[in-house]
Amino acid sequence: MVVTAVRRHLEVDLVSDLEGVDATDVRAITRLYQVLDRRPVYSSGLDHIVRTVDQHYSRASPKPLTRRLLASLLYETGGHFEELGRTQEAAQCQRIAAELAPDGPDRTILYLISAISSEQQLYALGSLTVDAVLRALLHEVGRSGRRIRRAKILGVITYAAHSTANIERLRTAVEALEAAADTPGYRALVIFYRSRVLMADGRVDERLAAEREFSRAAAGIGPKDPAHQLVASALASVMPHDSPMAQASEAALRGDHVGASGWYGQSAEELPHGPLRATMRLFAEAARVQGGLLPSPAALRACLSRLCTDNVFAARTITVAHVELLLTALLMRAVDLHEAGHDAHIVAELADFLGEFRGGTAVGRPQDSGAYDTDARADMTLVDFLARTTAPVTTTEIARHLPAHHVVWVHVTGAEVGEHYLTVVTLRPSHPVPLVRRTHVSAADGKALAQCLDEESEDAPAEAVRRISGLFFADVDPGATGARVLVVPDSVTWAMPWNELAPPGTEDLTVSMSAGAALRSRPVPAVVVPRVIGIFDEVELEGSRLEARALQQLDAQGHIRFTQVHSLAELRDALEAAPYDILTVSVHGTESDGFEYRMLLPDGPSSPAALLCLGLPPVVVLGCCWSAKSTERADTTAAALSCLAAGASQVVGGLWAIDDELAGRLLADTYDRHLRRGVPLPQALRQAHLALPPDLRPRAAGLAFIGRG
Fold it and tell me: How far apart are the C-alpha atoms of 136 and 182, rounded to whole Å?
């Protein structure tokens, strides 16, 4: 009745409005909302929200639902600007929000509640869509007038968060409901939903106690209580029944891992392909690991096959951390089996599959046209890249396509508090069987590892560098001359001085998210006179001036055809007008990740997502601080990965805050070797690094070669 009334008075069809924007606007808005979840909130991130709304939605005609979501987002953004003391920007947010939704929070609440209430199977709309609606509702309830029944609204929000497995939003909603609960029924609901949060946290005993408390409270809730129907529905969900998901949950609580894996698997098979099905498959295989039900490499391969069939990466939109935990547990199980005398190939396959999850699957994938008209949409699309289905590559495939490379996978894992292990898997060109080495990280190893991470590595003692090099590259063939090394680091070891750690005699060292990503990347064609395009900050950065002069000189000598542009718009137009072989960007980069990371182009800051909008050449050189930084969150990206996702095959980028003058000197020498003498780019960068005086090399090691060597 409420939905019908709202449709009549607002003259909209709420369901079609909600479904119609699911694939684009609402999901993009959700990505913008995630800026506000980061702590601390960066002013550049808030600027990004306002700029994106101005850039795209001010020229479009968004549907009523989209307008209200944007208005709520801008009011929340304005509040953060106020906290930062930026009153002018806060007023701008409030002005734009009032134009988008001029009739206030009460009407917005009515609209959004009616929209999600009209769709009982909320998971069918997609987790990002529902999350945007819940975020807006939670914010608008705080702004609403006296006529709004807060407890009633929050009861609907908690139901929607629970039914779509959105635990983080459920936590927030339960706290708000507890403060607003004004009847015994709503107070009982607080207990019920708190039990669901406890279940998600794995606090089984407390969860069972809360369920018993809720059942006692629910028995006294009569039909006159406004929350009666919600309480009855919640009570039915805790009473024994025979749905596969309930059976799985009960089996898991009993420690019956065989039963839990079977019931979760059945739950997956009954669901359509998507994030929820992937999550059920994730839980099924996690139960197998916990129950010790993977006794052989064949069992591990069958497990991996099931995860791929149901696209476990799709579960990252619901439970990112659980995916990485499961894959890490599978890798450690494979190492256990290998140490007991079993197959080593599955260890390499699982090590690479972990790399695929961390970003490798984004590389070399076809893109849908028209998805990158704003930074917000491009960032949102990258989540789709990261959630792509993929299949693990075999060591045979790697050896066939990278016949001259040593491939080295590096993983640091924690077993118990204070206990860490380094697992290194090495595939030699001359040896078809991977070499697996698991080492307990001693106090001395841990200290050396810390000294060789990020900018700290620039001051690392020589002994620490030798120690870590020995741990990482112990199985690289010592007799190999001119060895080519492809490293697949985990997120812990990504930002390390790889050109300093590389064994003596290494011809080139390439970093990649996964070997599979390197195999999918297109080969870089040989060109007689390459076309190079660049954008530089020659006002503030001496390194940019050095780099630009080196390219201008190569152009004057006839080795390249060089084009210099001064804005993102010029760069986009040039790339659309003619093909190029190399793009170089030499500007300031800001420290952070995802939305907050910015390349400070001459015409203004730009997020890594802007690179997805461009038709990139095969080679991209990013002479920017932190441009190749590993992501801190599994749903965001650094600039280097954006380039690889957009079609580049080779990227040179900064792993930390690089010295701009030294970087310019290093890149100028690299260009001379590569573009004038014809040395392949990864070897040219390695040679240029080794040509520096020894005391300067550690500071230059922040520039890394990433992609396909």
Answer: 23
Helices (H), 84-238: 87-100, 104-117, 127-143, 150-163, 167-180, 184-200, 204-218, 228-238
Neighbours of 112 (CB within 10 A): 25
Residue 78 has pLDDT above 90, yes or no: yes
Q: Tell me, what's the pLDDT at 372?
A: 62
**440 burial type by CB count under 10 A (0-12 exposed, 13-18 middle, 19+ buried):** exposed
| Average confidence (pLDDT) over 304-315 | 92
Cis peptide bond upstream of 392, omega within 30 = no
CA distance 425 to 217: 56
DSSP codes, 544-591: HHHHHHHHHHHHHTTS-EEEEE-SHHHHHHHHHHS--SEEEEESEE-S
Residue 125: the pLDDT is 67
Find, among 498, 467, 500, the residue nearest to 653 by Cα: 498
Q: How confident is the model at residue 21 (pLDDT cuts 50, 70, 90)?
A: very low
The rounded Cα 76 to chain-centroid distance in angstroms is 24
Rounded to a whole number of angstroms, the distance between the first and last alpha carbons of the chain is: 63
Task: Measure the CA–CA gap between 686 and 672, rounded to whole angstroms.
Answer: 13
For the stretch 620-657, pLDDT in tens is 999 999 999 866 565 566 788 888 988 899 999 999 99
Rounded Cα distance between 654 and 651, Å, is 10
Q: Which among 610, 595, 685, 680 is positioned nearest to 645, based on CA atoms?
A: 610
Question: Which of the four pLDDT bands, split at 50, 70 and 90, describes residue 292?
Answer: very high
3-state secondary structure (DSSP) of residue 614 = coil
The beta strands (E) that lie in 257-318 are given as none
pLDDT digits (tens, 9 = 90+) for 558-605: 999 999 999 988 999 999 999 999 999 999 988 765 566 778 888 887
Query: What are the C-alpha distances in Å from 701 to residues 56, 225, 518, 590?
Result: 39, 67, 22, 19
Per residue, the 3-state secondary structure of 203-261, as one string, reads: CHHHHHHHHHHHHHHHCCCCCCCCCHHHHHHHHHHHCCCCCHHHHHHHHHHHCCHHHHH
Residue 321 has pLDDT above 70, yes or no: no
Comparing 72-81, 98-107, 174-183, the range with the smallest average pLDDT is: 98-107
Which DSSP category does 344 fall into? S
Q: How far is CA 586 from CA 574, 581, 613, 654, in A?
A: 17, 17, 19, 11
Strand partners, 508: 484
As a whole number of angstroms, the distance between CA 348 and CA 353 comes to 9
Gap between the Cα atoms of 464 and 449, Å rounded: 7
Beta strands 420-427; 483-489: pairing state = unpaired
pLDDT of residue 514: 95
Who contacts 262 (Cβ-Cβ below 8 Å, separation ≥6)?
Answer: 248, 251, 284
Among 29-33, 119-123, 533-537, 542-546, which is the least confidently predicted range? 119-123
Q: Listing from the earlier edge strand, what are the strands of the sheet with 650-654? A: 435-440, 420-427, 405-414, 483-489, 506-511, 703-707, 650-654, 619-622, 582-586, 531-536, 561-565
Average pLDDT, the chain: 86
